[in-house]
Design brief:
Na+/H+ antiporter like fold; two-stranded antiparallel ribbon
C-alpha cells in the first residue's frame, strides 16, 4: 500500500473514531458552556476554502482550453448525475422530508479537493481533475441553489437567493481572499503551504463530529438505512460518471478522473448550507455521513486503479 493511500485511510479511520465518540458522548461536541459548537461550522469552512484559494492559480483552468469536451462532459455529469441519483434515493428510501433533502443537498454540491488527491493516486488526469474541481466550485453559487429549489423544494423550504449568498460567503469570498493572498503575500508566509492542509483536515473532522453529535438521535433511528443510501449515492456516482465517459470514447485516465469527480462531493459545504438553513441535525446528516464513506471508497477505488494499466504515461505530480 502506497504512502499516499495509507495517509488517506489513516485520516478516514480517525474520522470514524471521532464520529463514534460523538455518538457516545454527544455533549462533548454540542456546547462548551453557553457556546454552541455548531457556530464554528461556517468559520471552519471559510478557513478551509481560504486554504483552497492559496493553492489556486489561472493554470488550474488550463483544462478548459486543452480539453474542452472533457471539461464540459465532466461538469455536466457532476451537476446531473449526483443530483438526479440523490433525488431518486431520497424518494425511494422514504426518509423524512428533511433527511431526504440532505441526500439531495450532497448531490447538488460540487466536488471537493479530495478528488484531486484521489485522481493522483489512481493515475488519472490530475490536470483535468483540478480544472473540474475549480469550475464546479465557482459554478456552485448558481447551480446548487437552483437544483435544490427544483429537486428539494417540496421537502424543505429553499430560498434560492439566500442559499446563493451563503455559498458566496462560505466559498467564493474565502477562495478569492486566498488567491489574492497567494499572489501578493504567500512568498512571505511559505510555511502556510504545509500548515493549511493539516488545518483543513482538522476542520473537516470537527465539522463532521459536531453535526453527528447534533443529529445523534435521528442518526441512531435511521443510521444504517441512511448509511446504505449514502453508500449507493457515492458508488453510483463512480459507476455512472465512468460509464458515460466510456460510452463517449474518452481515454481511461479521463474516465477515471470524471468518475472520481462525480463520486466525491464537498460534504463540508453541504453541511454548512444545512446549518445556514437551521436544520443541521436533519438536513446535515447525509453530508456528515458522506464524508467518511467517500474517503473509504475513494481510497479503495484509487488504490485498485493504481495497479491497473492506462493507455497513457504516468500521472504527473
Amino acid at each position: 500500500m502506497s504512502r499516499e493511500i495509507f495517509k488517506q485511510l489513516w485520516y478516514t479511520l480517525m474520522i470514524l473514531l471521532a464520529v463514534a465518540v460523538s455518538l457516545l458522548f454527544p455533549q462533548w461536541f454540542t456546547t462548551i458552556g453557553d457556546f454552541k459548537l455548531s457556530k464554528l461550522i461556517v468559520p471552519l469552512l471559510q478557513v478551509i476554502m481560504f486554504g483552497m484559494g492559496t493553492v489556486m492559480s489561472m493554470s488550474d483552468f488550463a483544462g478548459v482550453v486543452k480539453q474542452p469536451k472533457a471539461v464540459l462532459v465532466g461538469l455536466a455529469c457532476q451537476f446531473a448525475i449526483m443530483p438526479g441519483v440523490g433525488y431518486g434515493l431520497a424518494k425511494g428510501f422514504g426518509f423524512a422530508p428533511e433527511v431526504a433533502a440532505g441526500i439531495i443537498l450532497i448531490g447538488c454540491s460540487p466536488s471537493g479537493m479530495a478528488s484531486n488527491v484521489m485522481s493522483y493516486i489512481a493515475r488519472a488526469n490530475v490536470a483535468l481533475s483540478i480544472t473540474l474541481t475549480a469550475l464546479a466550485t465557482l459554478m456552485a453559487p448558481l447551480l446548487t441553489p437552483l437544483l435544490m429549489k427544483t429537486l428539494a423544494g417540496e421537502l424543505v423550504e429553499v430560498s434560492f437567493w439566500k442559499m446563493m449568498w451563503d455559498i458566496v460567503q462560505i466559498v467564493i469570498l474565502p477562495i478569492g481572499a486566498g488567491a489574492l493572498f497567494n499572489h501578493f503575500l504567500m512568498h512571505r508566509f511559505t510555511w502556510l503551504r504545509q500548515v493549511m492542509p493539516v488545518v483543513s483536515m482538522v476542520g473537516i473532522g470537527l465539522i463532521i463530529t459536531i453535526i453527528t453529535a447534533s443529529g445523534r438521535d435521528s442518526l441512531l433511528n435511521i443510521g444504517w438505512l441512511l448509511l446504505l443510501a449514502v453508500l449507493l449515492h457515492n458508488l453510483l456516482g463512480y459507476v455512472l460518471g465512468y460509464g458515460v465517459c466510456r460510452l463517449l470514447g474518452f481515454t481511461e485516465r479521463d474516465c477515471r478522473t470524471v468518475a472520481i469527480e462525480v463520486g466525491l462531493q464537498n460534504g463540508g459545504l453541504a453541511s454548512g448550507l444545512a446549518l445556514q438553513m437551521g436544520k443541521v441535525a436533519t438536513v446535515g446528516l447525509a453530508p456528515a455521513i458522506f464524508g467518511p464513506v467517500m474517503n473509504i471508497t475513494g481510497s479503495m477505488l484509487a488504490s485498485w486503479w493504481r495497479t491497473r494499466p492506462t493507455e497513457g504515461s504516468e500521472t504527473p505530480a
